Automatic annotation (TrEMBL):
GO MF, one example: UDP-N-acetylmuramoylalanine-D-glutamate ligase activity
Subcellular location: Cytoplasm
Location of the Mur ligase central domain: 119-298
ATP-binding as UniProt keyword: yes
Taxonomic source organism: Aequorivita viscosa
Record domain Mur ligase C-terminal: where: 320-433
Highest taxon in the source lineage: Bacteria
Protein name: UDP-N-acetylmuramoylalanine--D-glutamate ligase
Keyword match Cell cycle: yes
Pathway named in the protein's UniProt entry: Cell wall biogenesis; peptidoglycan biosynthesis
């Protein structure tokens, strides 16, 4: 890969302020320093020790537990970590002053000529991104995985090592882009999520997701779920310049990916690939779609069919997504902590074959639980609420599930589930909510669940 730097967003020796001293913030700080910026990192909370050490080692100025406004407002450009809402007072002041506020993705993309595969969607983006990365790596491409997953994209760009990037992209990261354009974009699906950040308007959230394609050209590709009503509706009213490659499990398509005779079939300009669904390691309709999207990318990037086949046979999924933990007394414990919205939990409940004790709750992001009612009625024998405020969950399911209990500790939730469970039951952690009331993040929640199960 050529190491030529593209021109900076602003002139050399400009000042960049980075709001948030986490993975994306510190990664951006490293790249910004390397590319000639004066760098200042400011975190309203505490910066983790490991990140602090990186900043100290790189001689980057930082502050924590508050923002020094006069210093921040002198910035030429600001990189805002995705967790910080636009409504935060310091962000509002920057915008009023006309300071450009961007995301790590926007900043870092300026400094690489790599081929970028960007993946967004309400659900399935981590699994799809991990699977794409796995196939490309098995195909011996020089590739890195980043964005909303793993190591910071900006830091990996600073290493000047990669010719390809697979990026999982959240709506918050896409909100902060101006010119970022992945060569291949995937939109896995749409369902209401993070509505608390989008004025409780679903259409605002949808528009945010489609930003992934806004700067693409006719030389680029947009891969999407043709069965998704909201995606279909948006595409009927808006234009995307890139080439559309749909995937579907309901209809046969002339171009793209579809299901036929219990096989996935990919057809792009008469370049065909097919594989029996039974041979794909990840089962379930949503995973068939994830496999279709990933295989479409691999076909575009000319990965050998045998490599694609071997990768799909060997990839069993990601941690915290319908992860089977242990079977105790013929009761299966499943960690689906990554289900932070209603739609993700819908998939989890739908996949239950035995009566379930469902651990649910956390920070509600504007959830509407009504679509879960038929599944809960059919599959769930008891609910354990794990959150600070469980009122909405109790109101939604109180009439259809006899046993609903409240707890604010993972250990107590798992012990309660253990007592309620009978042979051939399943204990499912699938919260349908964010984790920040009781846990650091969904990974912390999932790990605590697994530890509690192992300690039974």
């Amino acid at each position: 890969m050529s190491s030529n730097r593209k021109s900076s967003i602003v002139n050399r020796q400009s000042k960049i302020v980075i709001l948030g001293g986490g993975e994306s913030g510190v990664g951006t700080a490293i790249l910004a320093k390397q590319t000639g910026f004066e760098v200042f990192v400011s975190d309203f909370g505490k910066i983790k020790e490991k990140y602090k050490q990186v900043l100290i080692n790189n001689e980057i100025e930082w502050e924590e537990e508050g923002h020094s406004e006069e210093n921040i407002l002198l910035a030429d450009v600001v990189m805002k970590s995705p967790g910080i809402p636009d409504k935060a007072p310091i962000v509002q002041k920057l915008l009023e002053k006309g300071v450009k506020v961007i995301s790590e993705i926007e900043f870092a993309a300026k400094y690489t000529d790599a081929t970028i595969v960007g993946i967004t969607g309400s659900n399935g983006k981590t699994t799809t991104a991990s699977l794409v990365y796995e196939i490309l790596k098995n195909g011996e491409l020089n590739v890195a995985l980043g964005g909303n997953i793993g190591k910071s994209f900006a830091e990996q760009v600073s290493e000047l090592r990669y010719e390809n990037f697979v990026l999982e992209l959240s709506s918050f990261q896409l909100d902060g882009i101006e010119s970022f354009a992945p060569h291949i974009a995937i939109l896995t699906n749409l369902s209401p999520d993070h509505l608390d950040r989008y004025d409780y308007k679903y259409e605002n959230y949808i528009a945010s997701k489609f930003r992934i394609a806004m700067n693409q050209t006719s030389q680029d590709y947009f891969i999407y779920d043709a069965d998704d009503v909201e995606i279909d509706k948006w595409l009927s009213k808006n234009t995307i310049k890139s080439r559309l490659l749909p995937f579907s499990i309901k209809k046969e398509l002339s171009q793209g990916a579809f299901k036929k005779n219990n096989e996935i079939v990919i057809n792009i300009d008469n370049n065909k690939f097919n594989m029996p669904i039974s041979e794909i390691a990840m089962q379930g309709e949503h995973n068939v779609k994830n496999a279709m999207a990933a295989t479409t990318v691999a076909t575009l990037l000319k990965i050998r069919k045998e490599t694609i086949r071997r990768s799909l046979e060997g990839f069993s999924g990601v941690e915290h997504r319908l992860e089977k933990v242990l079977k105790i007394n013929n009761v299966l414990y499943i960690n689906d902590s990554k289900a932070t919205n209603v739609n993700a939990t819908f998939y989890a409940l739908d996949s239950m074959e035995n009566p379930a004790i469902w651990i649910v709750g956390g920070v509600d992001k504007g959830n509407n639980y009504s679509e879960l009612l038929p599944l809960v009625n059919e599959k769930v024998k008891a609910i354990i609420c794990l959150g600070v405020d469980n009122k909405k969950i109790i109101e939604a399911f109180g009439n259809i599930v006899d046993t609903i209990m409240e707890t604010t500790s993972m250990e107590v939730a798992v012990r309660t589930a253990y007592k309620l469970a009978e042979r051939n039951n399943t204990v499912l952690l699938s919260p349908a909510c964010a984790s920040f009331d009781l846990f650091e993040n969904y990974e912390d929640r999932g790990r605590q669940f697994k530890n509690a199960v192992r300690n039974l």
